[in-house]
Specification:
The complex is a heterodimer. By secondary structure, chain A is mainly alpha-helical. Chain A contains twelve helices and four strands. Chain A has one domain: Orthogonal Bundle (ABC transporter involved in vitamin B12 uptake, BtuC). A two-stranded antiparallel ribbon of chain A has the order 1-4. Chain A has a two-stranded antiparallel sheet with strand order 2-3. The longest helix of chain A is centred in the N-terminal third of the chain and has 31 residues. In chain B, the strands form two sheets. Chain B has a six-stranded mixed beta sheet with strand order 6-7-8-3-9-10, with helices on both faces. Chain B has a four-stranded antiparallel beta sheet with strand order 2-1-4-5, with helices on one face. Chain B has two domains: 156 residues, P-loop containing nucleotide triphosphate hydrolases (Rossmann fold), CATH 3.40.50.300; 67 residues, no CATH class. The chains are: A mainly alpha, B alpha/beta. Bound molecules: adenosine-5'-diphosphate and magnesium ion. Adenosine-5'-diphosphate (ADP) binds next to strand 2 and helix 1 of chain B.
Chain lengths: 296, 234
């Protein structure tokens, strides 16, 4: 019983973080049919933002808000600087700029800050534990669950109830048609990158809250997780990304519980085997979106 | 209302539209006929700003050549593409709402227009909370026309609204087009169903291999002995 509770909380907290990572990636993919490889660097930017504000004396929540804002601004800027100029050219060109931007940002961090991990300020709450149902739970796991479920609900509400949200969903299936109804392409794309940056910023807080420090490569694992989660869940749907995030977290956590110590080092091999099996079974991912996808 | 001069559209090496010129007076219903591949859809998409083209397009006297599709909507041009393009996972009501995107702040006006569309197409009202992708072909066609009208256009571009629909539904669609004409909406109608289109239209253009091969009053074009020849591309 206690193990089950522990397991559930582990899955939900890891899954919440994974789901946010995946959503941030798929929101841009849905519109541009492009995997933004610079996504991990948005997470990194927020982390270094937090690091640079260390000792500024600002309340932590203010620092966190600034860090998230930094990721949003970087997201929108990458779109302006790297994607917009080549967007109309070819998918390959956009893929390459996205890689290039990722590399530039990582190298900037290596050069101007350090290749070594840097500690970021975190509130004491992140290192406390809560006793609940006979088990000790790290408070940061509960924070992650509450924050991610709250954000997922808020996001679902905005996408369903606001005109801009509805237009974003429409543009993800029929971009040209949405434009022929008056929905401005640039607004939709900038909004997608802003939302992506926002999720990256929040993920950064939660992720770095787990590991305690930031490195130039900190965004790599979240990018990979987001990519796998969206592939399992179905690249074409937002629900798929969330489902894929939780499923991947379930697989990883279950393996953590089941594998013996000497097998645990091969956990990723087990995870990927399962991912491949899922994809053999449903090559399009678990949730199939509508079968369209013209870019402009 | 609409004045197209020397419109040219190319897809790489394929010249789909080669110097087409069209004029539509206010309130006129003009049909654009031609065989498959004659360049009708490309012409419409280019006018709507959705395809790169050269030549000039004027709407209500304003030169709108090269404008983006979203800007064309604000200029009063609404397009119903032959691919229909409902947003399949959005509900009927959400599809209609997006039709009014350009005037979304006018909430009361948008709500009133939605009721007007429901009066025009009662099927859509019954299905307003249903995902548009689950509608029948005829219902989807009604939805995309209603969605286009939600922007309160001055000029409606209709691409093959009867394509693939059952005869009774085709009759409904044409009755609706006749009603829009009665309300003095300016319409450019592309059709495969030449006899039905000529029956409702004031004037007609016949496209052949990307060029205007014939033009004139609908009745004259209908009476022309070589219609079959022009229409089928001979
Ligand atoms: N996206 C496209 N890419 C390449 N060629 C196209 C494309 N769309 C249309 N064409 C070509 O342009 C010509 C005109 O097509 P279209 O405008 O669709 O004609 P219509 O609507 O009269 O059937 C045809 O030869 C068609 O094959
Ligand atoms: Mg056509």
């Amino acid at each position: 019983m206690q193990t089950l509770l522990q397991f559930t909380i582990d899955v939900l907290s890891l899954g919440g973080a994974y789901a946010l990572m995946a959503l941030g990636l798929v929101i841009v993919y849905g519109i541009l049919k492009l995997v933004n490889f610079a996504y991990g660097e948005l997470i990194m930017v927020a982390g270094y933002g937090l690091f640079l504000m260390n000792g500024s004396g600002l309340p932590w929540l203010v620092m966190a808000a600034v860090a998230v804002l930094l990721a949003v601004v970087t997201g929108v800027l990458t779109e302006y600087a790297a994607f917009r100029p080549v967007r109309a050219k070819s998918v390959t060109a956009v893929l390459i700029t996205s890689f290039a931007f990722s590399t530039i940002l990582q190298n900037a961090a290596l050069l101007f800050i350090s290749p070594r991990p840097r500690n970021v300020p975190l509130p004491d709450l992140f290192s406390q534990t809560v006793a609940f149902g006979g088990i000790l739970i790290p408070a940061r796991n509960l924070i992650t669950i509450v924050a991610s479920i709250g954000l997922l609900l808020l996001f679902a509400f905005l996408m369903k109830r606001t005109v801009l949200g509805i237009a974003m969903r429409a543009a993800a299936t029929q971009f040209r048609m949405a434009r022929m109804l008056g929905v401005p392409a640039n607004l939709i794309i900038s909004t997608a990158f802003a939302i992506s940056g926002f999720f990256a910023g929040v993920v950064s807080l939660l992720w770095i809250g787990r590991i305690g420090s930031v490195t130039p490569g900190v965004g790599l694992e979240p990018l990979l997780v987001a990519f796998i989660a969206t592939v399992i869940g179905g690249m074409r749907s937002l629900q798929g990304a969330v489902l894929g995030g939780f499923l991947l977290a379930f697989i990883n956590t279950a393996l953590n519980y089941l594998l013996t110590q000497d097998l645990l080092q091969f956990r990723d091999a087990f995870t990927f085997t399962l991912v491949i099996l899922i994809l053999l079974w449903r090559p399009e991912g678990l949730i199939r979106g509508p079968a369209t996808g013209q870019r402009t | 209302m609409l004045e197209v001069t020397d419109l040219t559209v190319s897809y790489g090496a394929i010249n789909a539209v080669r110097g087409v010129s069209l004029r539509l007076a206010e309130g006129e219903l003009v049909t654009l006929l031609g065989a498959n591949g004659a360049g009708k859809s490309s012409t419409l998409l280019a006018i709507a700003g959705a395809l790169k083209s050269s030549g000039t397009v004027r709407v209500g006297g304003t030169d709108v050549s090269g404008w983006s599709p979203e800007r064309m909507v604000r200029q009063g041009v609404a397009m119903v593409p032959e691919t229909r393009d409902v947003f399949p996972d959005l509900t009927v009501a959400e599809n209609l709402l997006l039709g009014a995107y350009a005037r979304r702040r006018d909430r009361d006006g948008v709500a009133a227009d939605r009721q007007r569309m429901f009066a025009l197409f009662p099927r859509l009202q019954e299905r307003q909370e249903q995902a548009a992708g689950t509608l029948s072909g005829g219902e989807q066609q009604m939805l995309v026309i209603a969605r286009a009208l939600m922007s309160r256009p001055r000029l409606l571009l209709l691409d093959e609204p009867s394509l693939g629909l059952a005869p009774t539904v085709v009759d409904q669609i044409f009755a609706m087009i006749a009603e829009l004409k009665r309300q003095r909406l300016t319409i450019l109608l592309v059709e495969q169903n030449a006899s039905k289109a000529l029956a409702v239209a004031d004037r007609a253009y016949v496209l052949r291999l990307g060029k205007v091969a014939a033009e004139g009053r609908a009745a004259d074009i209908a009476a022309a002995s070589d219609l079959e020849h022009l229409y089928l591309g001979g």
